User: Fold this.
Amino acid sequence: MPRLPGRVRDPLLFSKCYATSLGGTGHPTTSRRLLLFSTTTPSKLPPFSPRGTFKTPPPSGNNNKTASTKPFIATVLFSLAAASVGAVVYFRPGIGRDNIRAKMSNKLVPANPDDVMVIRDVTPNVVTFSVPFLRFGKIPIGGRGTLVRLSNNSLAVFSPVALTPSARARVSSLGSGQVSYIVATDIEHHIFVSEWARAFPDAKIIGPEGLPEKRAKVTNDDRIGHEPFSVVFTKENKRNLKIDEAFDADFEYEYVDAHPNKELVFYYKPDKVLIEADLMFNLPAIEQYSKVPEAEKPHGSLLGRVFQAMNSTEGEAKGIKRFLWYAMSRGDRAGFNESVRRIDGWDFETIVPCHGETIVGNGKEVFKKVFEWHLEGHN
Ligand SMILES: [Fe+2]
Assistant:
């Protein structure tokens, strides 16, 4: 039986608060708009149904009477902090909205990207470019682009980051040295598409629906051009869309349209590597800050610590499981689950996320843990 986060009377209210790893385990009910926690152990709870309700009513008389004041207050405080982070993440400008701020790319680019970029050969055919990145200027989540050599020696870049001289040299030394595919892996990871497209004008640009329109509205940022997209994934075409013979020979892909950021997830079959952007973080971002001088590294703010707790895969990974369940997948749980199950069907061993540490060797194991509730088929 999966362990769903709990003691929450209303998952909708809970999702707005993105609460937390402090509430113990248990199961949500859908009865009232009231946030409650208790100390009842999961073993005393009835089975959880796919519709998010108890198959039988929870044991009477134990909902609050056993809860002490201290954990309740701690939970409320933590929930408020989590809600602050979550609200900013979920409702930030640019996510499915038309609010494109002027010169937004300036805030996303390190002043000295070549000095702080870590270039790593994850496998013989997969190279990552990792850089520091502060979300909202406060939360160190890092950024990562991925370069892949296809079987025909052409190259594909995913979630491109700055094309620094060092990155350019690494591209030139891999395969044909020519990038044939530039992939914006969601509606956020597109800032450097134009920089790579100018260097490789024959490359196909690939992205999710909504991104071409979003970029077209940006008229005051030289970094963001208006290059046409060759392939655009939509909810309607996702099951039939093909990129081309060479790409499709090496990759499986899934458009997670149920995710708020419209995620594109790719599986590079020859090296068993999963490439994704925001579907799953793996904080803290150690590699991405490894070349930043100690004195310049961000120190943990409350906001940063809360966000990290919600995006760590360590241990039982309760925070990230709840974040994905109650926040990221709440809009279309069935569609999200279907995408997760398809991805789980791929035989990957390594996960390359855009934020946080790359997971080498035990990627499938971590994936199954983080998405346990989705794979169990609950809605
Ligand atoms: Fe991201």
